[in-house]
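Please, structure for the following, as tokens.
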Amino acid sequence: MGIHSELRVVRHMAFPRVTGATQAERMESLYRPTAHVYDAFREHRLLHGRRDLVGMLPTAPGSHLVDMGAGTGNNIEYLGERRRGECRRITLVDVSASMLDVARRRVERSGWDNVETVLASATDYRPHEQADIVMFSYALTMMPDWFAAVDHAHAILRPGGTIAVCDFYVSRKHPADGVRHAAWRRHLWPAWFSHNNVFLSPDHLPYLRARFSTVQVRERLAPVPYLPARVPYYLFIGTKD
């Protein structure tokens, strides 16, 4: 990615023009200008942990994997040829038509005949059958009704199915489990990210733990381009009882 393209993305993030009456319209206005260079900057410079999350997915022959808020479909690259091929169906769901256009071209270019794209929200998508795995990768923080999205994922998963989540977050002031972040992190990052309609929450992990049986949780800090600070993010793997 050239310096001019990178600066364009940084400028768009610093001065976003988010318009629209619905979440779909707002997401489209946010991502349309930079959808073609999304992977080169956000994916590799800002959104850490995606490759690790995909590596933790318990794929098996015949699995149906649903990637909610799939964006450009880059996560599917991380599955590798064998794991991607053994899935019976992979569904990429997103509300941004521009991002799904990039995903669709990736699918066609790669010849993935078991991968489909669906223009829908994480609460409106209705699969023909229950899913084996539902994944949210840096998506819940962009969903106003993220708790409803988690509930919907629970509803469409088969019993024993897996939910996998990777996202930015901040801890509660007094978390019952896991890492406790310093006050400056708990105040700085929600304010900083909300400028781009990304809303960090201290309630993601507690709610995921309440709705699913926890298999793995990893809490980490990631570098932020051009800033001398690290932002918290987590990886969560859970199963539906």
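The CA atoms of residues 27 and 213 lie 31 Å apart. The chain has one domain: 47-239.
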